[in-house]
Specification:
Layout (H helix, E strand, L loop, with lengths): L1 H6 L5 H90 L5 H28 L1
């Protein structure tokens, strides 16, 4: 019976040592894989950060150019619109002035000039009247 016990795997010291050695190797391989993954993750993270910075700077440049282009276009449109508006305003003023002249309505400048002439004539008239009153 002792031969039977020696043949059982439970009692085989070599088998137990091999299993123990295999378990240790598996454990060590796991630790090595964990360490390697941790190192690779750190390098990968740093590389991703660098690539992100490069992409961000490229993107800023492209976006900056696009913004400048849009601003230039907007400025051009604004200048054209302002010029067009000024021309329309001038044309409108000329047409209104022409229509008012045809109706016999004078411009403000003409009326103000007439008012100044009237003031000068009134003061001259007063002076002349005072001169005739002094002679009497």
């Amino acid at each position: 019976m002792s031969d039977e016990n020696d043949q059982k795997p439970d009692n085989d010291p070599q088998l137990a040592a091999r299993i123990k050695g295999s378990a240790r190797q598996i454990w060590l391989a796991g630790l090595g894989a964990y360490t390697k993954a941790e190192e690779d993750t750190g390098r990968l993270f740093e590389r991703l950060v660098q690539e992100g910075e490069q992409l961000e700077s490229k993107t800023r440049g492209v976006v900056g150019k696009q913004i400048k282009s849009v601003e230039d276009r907007v400025e051009g449109v604004r200048e054209r619109a302002t010029g067009t508006w000024d021309r329309l305003e001038t044309m409108f003023d000329e047409r209104v002035s022409g229509a008012l002249r045809r109706l016999g309505i004078h411009r403000r400048e003409e009326i103000e000039a007439l008012e100044r002439r009237i003031e000068v004539l009134e003061s001259e008239l007063k002076r002349l009247q005072q001169g005739t009153d002094d002679e009497e």
